[in-house]
Design brief:
The complex is a heterodimer of chains A (120) and B (109). Chain A has 120 residues and is mostly beta strands. Chain A is built from one helix and eleven strands, in the order βββββββββαββ. Chain B is an all-beta fold and 109 residues long. In chain B, strands 2, 4, 5, 9, 10 and 11 form a six-stranded mixed β-sheet that branches. In chain B, β9 and β10 form a beta hairpin. The chains are: A mainly beta (120), B mainly beta (109). Chains A and B meet through β9 and β10 of A and β4, β5 and β10 of B.
Chain lengths: 120, 109
């Protein structure tokens, strides 16, 4: 299956600093990437939908100035958590769809391995 | 509002038995329903997709059913193995997926 690489897998940062998380589709092109957040024993909550070459669409309640998303190419999207605080500590996961396969009717999502962010 | 419900309690079964997990949804008319596996500290991995006009789908030891009248999907793992222990998520939607909380499956030797 298609591979999505997410980096870093773990990061610890000080309160007030910014952290960038990268999400790459390694063997396919993704016009759309999705960013999720997951708290322990909770569901994946969609934060935003990232479209290549345009502004991201944020879900209700997600601050776009705090969670900056850039999708500059068909294989790379980044999420920057700005001025991080302890309450931002969570597991962040990206996913992508293969635009070629999506056109054929397949709609499964391929996920990165996730990033565990801890803000101290 | 749209809701996806999965049994939040862990399912404990013995190796070799069939595990059955349930996904119920309300206020949805999905064209697809998907099942994913998630291991601790990892992203979900796609398992199966079933379309609204399909009642059942199989892949190796996995079987998924989809009842659009009951608004329910059942996920079966036959001849379960300890390596099947994980959290299983159901998801609905097309380009944007909404996930249930998942059910943790524990298969003991």
């Amino acid at each position: 299956g298609a591979v999505v690489s997410q980096h870093p897998s773990r990061v610890i940062c000080k309160s007030g600093t910014s952290v960038k998380i990268e999400c790459r589709s390694l063997d396919f092109q993704a016009t759309t990437m999705f960013w999720y957040r997951q708290f322990p024993k909770q569901s994946l909550m969609l934060m935003a939908t990232s479209n290549e070459g345009s502004k991201a669409t944020y879900e209700q309640g997600v601050e776009k100035d705090k969670f900056l998303i850039n999708h500059a190419s068909l294989t790379l999207s980044t999420l920057t958590v700005t001025s991080a605080h302890p309450e931002d500590s969570s597991f962040y996961i990206c996913s992508a769809r293969d635009i070629v396969r999506a056109g054929a009717g397949d709609t499964e999502a391929f996920f990165g391995q996730g990033t565990r962010l801890t803000v101290v | 509002s749209q809701k996806i419900e999965q049994n939040s309690e862990a399912l404990n079964i013995q190796e070799g038995k069939t595990a059955t997990l349930t996904c119920n949804y309300t206020n949805y008319s999905p064209a697809y329903l998907q099942w994913y596996r998630q291991d601790p500290g990892r992203g979900p991995v796609f398992l199966l997709l079933i379309r609204e006009n399909e009642k059942e789908k199989r892949k190796e030891r996995l079987k998924v059913t989809f009842d659009t009248t009951l608004k329910q999907s059942l996920f079966h793992i036959t001849a379960s193995q300890p390596a099947d222990s994980a959290t299983y998520l159901c998801a609905l939607g097309d380009s944007t997926l909404t996930f249930g909380k998942g059910t943790m499956l524990l298969v003991s030797p």
